[in-house]
Amino acid sequence: MHLLLVDGSGYIFRAFHALPPLNRKSDGLPVGCVQGFCNMLYKLTTDMDEGEPPTHMAVIFDHSGKTFRDTIYSEYKAHRPPAPEELVPQFPLTRSATRAFSIPAIEMEGWEADDIMATYACMARDAGWKVTIASSDKDLMQLVEPDGSIRLLDTIPRPGQPPLRWIGPNEVLTKFGVTPDKVIDVQALCGDSVDNVPGVPGIGVKTAAELINTYGDLETLLSRAEEIKQPARRQKLIDNAELARISKQLVTLERKVPVDIDLDGLLRQPIDPSTLFPFLKAMEFATITKRLGNLLEADPDLFEPDPELRAGGTRDIGAPKKSADLSVAKAKLAANVVPGTGPARFAAEEHARIKAIPVNYDAYEIISTPEQLAACIARIVDRGHFAIDTETTSLDAQQAELVGVCLSTAIGEGCYIPIGHSKAGDLLEGGGLVDGQLPARDVLAALKPVLEDPSILKIGQNVKYDMEVFVRHGITMAPIDDTMLISYALDGPQYNGLDILANHWLDHKTITFGELAGTGKARKTFDQLEIAPAARYAAEDVDVTLRLWHVLKPRLAAENATALYETLERPLAPVLARMETRGITVDRQILARLSGDFAQRAAAFEAEAHELAGEKFNLGSPKQLGEILFGKMGLEGGTKTKTGAWATGADVLEDLAAKGVPLARTIVDWRQLTKLMGTYTDALPGYIHPETGRVHTSYSQASVLTGRLSSNDPNLQNIPVRTEDGRKIRSAFVAPQGKVLVSADYSQIELRVLAHIADIQALKDAFEEGLDIHAMTASEMFGVPVEGMPSEVRRRAKAINFGIIYGISAFGLSNQLGIERSVAGEYIKTYFERFPGIKDYMDSQRARVKVDGFVTTLFGRKIQFPNANSGNPSERAFVERASINAPIQGTAADIIRRAMIRMEGELKKAGVEADMLLQVHDELIFEVPEGTEDQAIPVIKRVMETAAEPAVRLSVPIQVDAHAARNWDEAH
DNA sequence: GCAAGGACGTA
DNA sequence: GTACGTCCTTGCA
User: Fold this and answer.
1) pTM beyond 0.85
2) A566 and A659 housed in the same domain
3) Is residue A778 located within the same domain as residue A655?
4) Nearest nt to A646, CA vs C1'?
5) What Å value separates CA A313 and C1' C4?
6) End-to-end CA distance of chain A
7) Do residues A193 and A287 both lie within one domain?
8) How far in angstroms lies nucleotide B5's C1' from the CA of residue A638?
9) Is residue A840 part of a domain?
10) A677 and A608 part of one domain
11) Bridge-partner residues for A388, per DSSP?
């Protein structure tokens, strides 16, 4: 008899890092480990059959939950990060795979797979059988028998090695330095950082083996510890004897698990094609299906894919999970995906297939009866995923009224459900609703269950918008996938809109909103449109969205962008949706008072300017101003812009003012005040929502090259702060009664990132010691002590530090500091000398962008520069500077994204009430109940400061400063 | 009515 | 020297 035990859980975890990522091609479900697992079972059944074929077989899995080890030692396996997101759906699938191969899948509550395997192995050995354990887990090495009756077989795929590798007593000796029966004693001493088994601190495998080989076993060693010569080692063993004993209990496998199935129950069964092939076909494993077809001499084509498991079935493929750690990204980068094979080929084939399906407007459907609606929802439930789009009266999700909902469950389909199309009315009264529409309440009530069903994936283009519309109707959409964000993760912001994506990937021109609703003054809102043309437009959009999803999603796996999308894009969208929905309170009175004040002062400046110029002119016209300054007044030193106009920017005017031209100063002052009025004091009140009374910005998650967010309508990321008048505007952002605002900002995040990425020891040391980084730089460069340093010296160093981040040039630095080009060049040279590593970093980025056409952030975000090899020298120089800046700015952006994604959950876990309202690149603004800020701030700081972990361990400390106050100016 | 350019607010 | 969005004027349709 020969028993084969397969370590199912161990295989999945190890194979995950060893195998290239692979998604099921029709819906992106990650299945790489499942496929590897099936290949392994196939290998075991074929290769082993050549030697001594197993007569009995089982696959053993870990059961989730606590085991007896947790009661012995509460920290056991406490360091384990949660399973990577892509792995989670593969756990149940490997069990399904096992059953598909007609092999018992065994797991038992309260026991680890290792204990169950130990139990069966000992039972079989005692019965005189041979035992093979397919596992590379070192914890199982204690079971190996010197006589070969129990052996391990390593089945984890490793490049350049045979698929199956035996582990016997010799291999155990190599690994632990002892015979198998003493493995647990060695493990008790050296511990295990992966499982968090403590061991004796400071004793590694080698020392442990030496000690055990000298004293025979752990207890003898501990009782004779006094005899050990080395004093440090002796003391460690005496002090930690108990820890060693606990460790031994943790690593010792239980060999008497009360198993339900006896050995006879593990007798091998012939594979049943009618269970095997439906599974393999549902997984879309073509190669292995073919191989097993040959092996079993059966025709796979006779079987249909398992309906429970087929693509888009009811399986949950989208529920939000804990973020994957960097090992995902690293494994993928290491996977070295070759175009034309594996996932890359899938993606290419899928693209070609989808692109070939023509758009057919006649196939679209308008839902006007409850029966049609019910049928549509039944299709959604059956498919498990669908594309959705809302049609509304406004681009502003907070103001938009729902006019229709459009759904697509399959390519070529589109169901438009009109609910808010209105008859033309007069000015005072709307004309009521057009006939033939289901009541909005009924439609929303019917959609709510599927929109909130965690097992049904909702696919959209810019889904954040639809989420916000639905949440105003009491519906929380989840889980979601977003074609815009997938495209952004893959290609950056270059193609954003649905129309552009459709044109680029599907070679299809969609109906534009302008064609449908008119442009300019004649533009109708969606509710004023006829249902039929509106339905065509809407249905085409969801159809195209679903097609794009099929094209783009497989590219994530093919192009190593899954981790980026899953950890930094997809989970952020709902967070932003909630921030936008919350909005922030802006005090109308403060703005009104400021506006009056600014207007008066601006009027005075305007009169003064006319006086000084000797004529009336439009101060807002750079053209007129240039003609007055450099034409009429004949001033020297005017420069022209690239279009030939006189340059009249603030820097030019400051120069003139310094040379004694009072008009220039007047204009600068006037411009500042009118800017503040036009952009802030006059414009912001118009953004106060009539119902919430708050200002709701909209964040764009997919429009910045480096991975930053941008904010618009209104832009709340450029609220003034530098000037005194500007800060008065900031003070109009307030907390409501009973609350305070908390502002938490990263200190010098980009310089810290630079210190880490470029590995600049001097910078790292300075941050570690908490020094004033600009003063330190100045001191290094100019040899001036930090004590009593003139502010001008520090200012120069600060400008240089920023310059470095921006991809410094002598030209730029000389402009910034108002110094000679040659002097600026000397500064840069000195900087490179004082901070070796900076130049190497810059050169490496310049080289990368020329070779690859992109650079990357620490978290794997690619920043593309298509014209890195442009024939235009100034364009090339620009790309060089941008490619130096992008990894720094982008890594900082990735870090704060991670903080935002974790923030709400951590606040909740800590029992702290705090609403995240705004993000300003390196700053987060919260609204917190007054008096609780001291509880909120430490949590906020911790989440932000540890946001890079565990994916990246920065070699510099991250520091966050946080303050609470009634308004944003004081909190900042 | 719309797009481009200049200017300027932020990190 | 990097990354954005908005306001205003200008010039052309």
Assistant:
1) no
2) no
3) no
4) B6
5) 42
6) 74
7) no
8) 18
9) yes
10) yes
11) A407
